[in-house]
Write the structure tokens for this entry.
Amino acid sequence: MTDYAFTHLRHVALAVPDYEKQLDFYTQQWGLSVAGSDADVTYLAAEGSPESYIVRIRKDVDKRLDLIAYGATDAASVDAMAERLGRSGVQLVGDPADLQTPGGGYGFRFFDNEGRTIEISADVAPRAHRKVEEGEPIPVKLSHVVVNSTDPEATVAFYEKHFGFQVSDILMHPRMGKMMWFLRTNSWHHSMAIARGPHPALHHASFEMRGIDEYMRGTGRMMRAGVEKIWGPGRHQAGNNTFSYFLDPNGNTMEYTTELEVLEEDSWHPHLYDFSDPAVSDQWGTANAMDEFVAAKSFNDVDKGLFVAPPI
């Protein structure tokens, strides 16, 4: 059994200049519910998830990825992780303490090798949630987060060394080399992926839908609403999950997905997939062709939050 430091992905936090449009998008179109708010910060939950919230939106003059949050087993493991990271020279934002966000809990934050803020927490109170019904096109949970990196090999090594992440699969191109690493911290194919990009930034966040029908209904709802679709609908080979990518009002890429692969870890061996083969990017052949213009949409803006902890 693999010794993972993290149990699962909790939430992603974004800072945006156009706060009201962002909230309207996620609540009126994307399908999330308000779990709490405090001044210019709103916490958004998925109806099918026990997580207290899966997206946090904060108003700021600068657009940035505030943080990515993961769960830990218990408070003792949080303390042990903070001590170990400190000894290894990883820059901590603060010492472990009680959290003052919805669900509470106990945790701390640190900067990864490229300056992203990562939060680790345990003992967060579960949120009252419900079963998402058949035909209901709203997210069940946050599936995974993908980030752009100028040195993906070093970033992958950072998460492998300090937290026991395992590489599930890698995407490569004959001309460009290795381009994306899918990392897991449990039996799901990936909760994080690292993409080679022109600057560190959020590539996309992905939301799991109940099933194929709900995924397609959600995709259609976005298209009918005139939300800019980047790529999809289709089905990737790595992870075997469906995909439809859209831009939120502040230019962040968001994905609807479903049926992400759950691995038999004892027998799994990573693949090196050549994405110049169209069937690797989209097994169905239903998505618009991937090209440099489509890819550039998810490069995102230069992240102004690197090695700068969010104020909340």
